[in-house]
Amino acid sequence: MTESKIPVGKRARLSVYFNKRLAQYYWERLQKNKLSLAGMGFIIFLMLLGIFGPFFTQDPTYSDFNLANIPPLGFSRQESVYDIKTNEFITTVIEGRPDHPLGTDSKGRDMLAMLISGARISLLVGLIATGIAVFIGVVIGVLSAYLGGWVDNVLMRFTDIMMTFPFFLLLVLIVFLFGPSLAIIVLVIGLTGWTGAARLIRSEALSLRTRDFITASRALGASDGRIMFNHLIPNVASLIIVMSTLSIPGVIMSEAALSFIGLGDPMRTSWGTILNAGQHTLDTAWWVAVEPGIMLFLTVLSFNFFGDGLRDAFDPQASI
Prior knowledge:
The protein is mostly helical. It has two domains: about 5-70 and about 105-315, MetI-like (MetI-like fold), CATH 1.10.3720.10; about 70-100, no CATH class. It is about 65% helix and about 5% strand. It has helices at about 10-15, 20-30, 35-50, 110-145, 150-165, 165-180, 180-190, 195-210, 210-220, 225-235, 235-260, 270-280, 285-315; strands at about 75-85, 90-95. It has a two-stranded antiparallel ribbon. A hairpin with a 4-residue loop joins strand 1 and strand 2 (about 90-95). The longest helix is centred in the middle third of the chain and has 37 residues, at about 110-145. About 35% of the residues are buried.
């Protein structure tokens, strides 16, 4: 099918989704931001680690108290035990072991296996919950902007009411009432975290609904649903991508905070759960708290760098 035979609406969609030259242009602009590329690289590494890591590590819940508090490979710690026979303290130096390269916790669980499990949980919660929140925000924002009138007033007032509730306190309350399961946490974050997305999408869609291509589509008899889903949403796709990328770190931190205060899924090993356990052994096993903290820091930083790079790449007025 040649370009002249493609309908105008479909041609617009093809230019958004299948224009290799446009994709190459965005990719070249993204490549100029080295921090964004570094963030993208770490995110890809984290995904690969979460997918394939469990095949090469032991069960993160397996405990062996004989291997408790082994330091990471290359580090050592001293352990003093009082000997009743000699009435003296006997000091033993415990070295890191190759079979536990990142050490173990106070229950003898392998830190590498737990960190990989935490990566899977964080990415799972971050991607799914953000997807739910962004989907709801896009639908509400586009409906509000395009239909206007009483629909806009009702949806925006409902959004204002939702925004008045402290997000984390509302999250803690709902998880406390319905139980700390991973599915509940994902649903609650997704169903309560859409307000910012709705506001941003509405403001962008308001500027688009008066454009010539929307007016032409309406004059040609296109239905409201077709205009919204075939024209408005594709034209805010770049904003949706950037907004999703920048929202994932907050979702990951919310899940980690819930796990840290004891409201995470007890059947899952997440970074927040490891941090909660590590805070009690900072003086004897510092790595239990430091390692998941570093992973959280690098993950959040990588998503923020990548999101900033995408925002600059999609913005034609940005100088990279």
